[in-house]
What does this fold into?
Amino acid sequence: MASITLTDLVKKYGDGYPAVNGVSLDIKDGEFVILVGPSGCGKSTLLRMIVGLEDITSGELKIGDRVVNDKAPRDRHLAMVFQNYALYPHLTVFENIAFPLRLQKGQFTEAQITDQVEFAADTLELREHLDRKPANLSGGQRQRVAMGRAIVRDAQAFLFDEPLSNLDAKLRGQMRTEIARMQRRLGTTTVYVTHDQTEAMTLGDRVAVLRKGELQQVASPRALYEQPKNLFVAGFIGSPPMNFLPGQVSGDTLTLPFAEVPIDDRLRSAIGDRELVIIGLRPEHVEDAKVLDDAKRGAGVVFGAEVDVVEWLGAELYAYIPFETHQDVAGKLEELDRDLDGEGMRTQMVVALGSESRVRDGSDAELWFDPARLLVFDPESGENLTYDDSEASRIDSETEEDRRAALERAQREAEKKQGGDRTETAGGQPTGRHREAS
Ligand SMILES: Nc1ncnc2c1ncn2[C@@H]1O[C@H](COP(=O)(O)OP(=O)(O)O)[C@@H](O)[C@H]1O
Ligand SMILES: [Mg+2]
It folds into this structure.
């Protein structure tokens, strides 16, 4: 296992287009980092540069303390995990997992191979499937076989490129949990690429958001959600996406399409002397005013809105409310929408209400939000003017503590499970120790 350090990495393809443009990122030993961004933002290119399948145009790539810019893929000791196509259909699960060991002819005895394959199979709960062929396994089991192959290679790090994108939603959810659990158990440095923000939010210790080859923000999922640095990150993270509303400033009042908000100190220091800003409000931060008690109602802003369509989802409902945007921010929001691979729906607000709400299609709703939830963005640069760096760091370190505790718990449990006949599994690094077994 090792750290991976990217310094100012650039990749220009033949036509000179910078697919990756000056990316710097420190991935710590044992960390699980997600690279996320819309299609075409350079995620696969970056991953392929790390693994050695793509030349580095400029910048430096280190694995541990070694600069590996010019090292061949096999000398980097990384394992790339693919979805389906990397399994050999005519070989059993055992042989599929053993494959990288057999490639290194004569290096391992039969007993060593068996030992390592069984270790991987135990870790991935594949023991009872070792004699089966890939065709007879479920998608999730096949995915685990592919991971088993990465485990026996004793790689410095695992690299995943959208491994779940071919699976249906339910299996994707299961595999997500599976991968998170396996990574925790093994403690292997992992870089995982996805365009799916839900996957990014649920899997990673830290999430790196890419836009057009450039890193936008690297933070824990919760810090990205609560303290996005700019419009792009704010719009990308969260589902349904954050609402962006034009906010016109006159005196001490901020006028939104539906409501007037008194400008308090926090908003004032963000707005400065701007006359027009973009306001961000998450759908889940709006509530149905009719179901609130007086104290809560009085502590926020209540506004009337004509609801167009309601989607009922059981635990909550989404209400869509059309509005006219201000022409001076329309261009910026359209550009943002294109970058986000959006569907051009920025002129309706979506609110996520609790299931007790009686709001229906065509309702004249009375809605509520807490102005402390409003984010203020610069309409030119897209910068989040309400971004609070110390709060973001605080959330990050809290997340790191939780993560460390989870890691320790997972590894203790794995040791308990594999203890007994395997005395060598007490303490030490999980991927290295099975080597010493025979
Ligand atoms: N072999 C290539 N030659 C030229 N351009 C490429 C090549 N591979 C990718 N690109 C371009 O680089 C950009 C990033 O691609 P990619 O890394 O595949 O994005 P992602 O994985 O985020 O969808 C895209 O604009 C893509 O068209
Ligand atoms: Mg890709």
Observations:
- The longest strand covers residues 18-27.
- The chain is about 35% helix and 25% strand.
- The chain has three domains: 4-226, 240-384, 391-437.
